[in-house]
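Hi support team,

I submitted a single chain yesterday and got back a structure, but I'm not sure I'm reading the token output correctly. Could someone confirm the output below corresponds to the sequence I sent? I've pasted both exactly as they appear in my results page.

Thanks,
R.
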Amino acid sequence: MQSHLARSGLACLAAVVLTAVVAGCGSGSDATTSKGSEGSAISAERCAENKAAGRITYLSGYQYQSSASILEYIAASKLGYFKDLCLNVTLKPGTGDTSQNTKLLASGQATVSPVAEQDVVQARANGIDITGVSSYSDAGLDILMTNKDITKLTQLDGKVVGHKGYVPAAVRAMLVKAGVTWDSLKLVKEGYDPSVLPRKQGGLEALTGFVSNEPNQLKAAGHDVTVWKPVDYDVPSSLGAMAVNPAFAKAHPHAVEDILRAALHAYDYCSASAAHITECVGYAADLSGPTYDKKLNATIWKTETQVVKDNPTPGQPLGGLDPANVTALVAMLHQFAIVPAAVTADKAATWFDPSYVKNIYTGDKLVWPAP
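Hi R., thanks for writing in. Yes, this is the structure output for that exact sequence:
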């Protein structure tokens, strides 16, 4: 199974051993500080249920980067929303390797973690038992960057394209859909310095990245690049998607609902104003240490939440799952032989449970406080 590799900028030197990941690394890896008043936003009966769920481990997708699916969980902890709902949530920083997160979820060493819908399908196809429970958008973060002299993607035929270990399926699907001759590309693995693109190092003409990360880094450095987004080519993906340990979810469904409720409440808070963005990014910085780039991370949050706003999940409130997107993702994974033919759209649909998000909304309004 392919997995996302660690993103640039913030990684600590974590061991690859799975238990080391949940042990955390760097500053503030065990982040339970809360300002809330226990049980203030929930009934006594449901509070008791959530307490009975015990310790809940949230494992981030990549360190404490201010991404959607990370920053709002940090904020939910720091603002006391988890405590308001009687949830005992501990935050742990992930390394950026999705395959580790899925294994930790399946083993119960993590309870809830950001996992793209595509990666849920791939994990289940490989026998890793996790359940997808929410997603913010059918658009994704994976993009391709080129210099301004590339005005159409077919100009990349025969050219050097850089990646972080592999070309994401969504980017490959975009290139193929745009008419690029895939087998003509000279694919090379690059490091995490995006300035290799404007320098055209080694004849580089294009570079994969994340829409909220490398383009913002390059812009801050004075480099103007073109960003090619798979969503503009109707290629399926996901953003801010979450997955849970199925055994925990079965035993404590209300706790799963309330984890998502608190995070969505915090998402609204952190998105409400520039001052709230600064506040929430400050919480992430406190957990990460003095090298945390607050300006870049504020831009990451603003970029990703704008993608969500521009590409809302059809017919769903924020966090709701789109069954048609899962179907489209399975077709894309079949196109590139990433999952076997035995993984049908109908089968993949059973690996997602939309009920948790559905149960915390009345129409498109998040229910807060909890019942």
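A quick pointer for reading it: Confidence is low (pLDDT under 50) at residues 1-34. Let us know if anything else looks off.

Best,
Support desk
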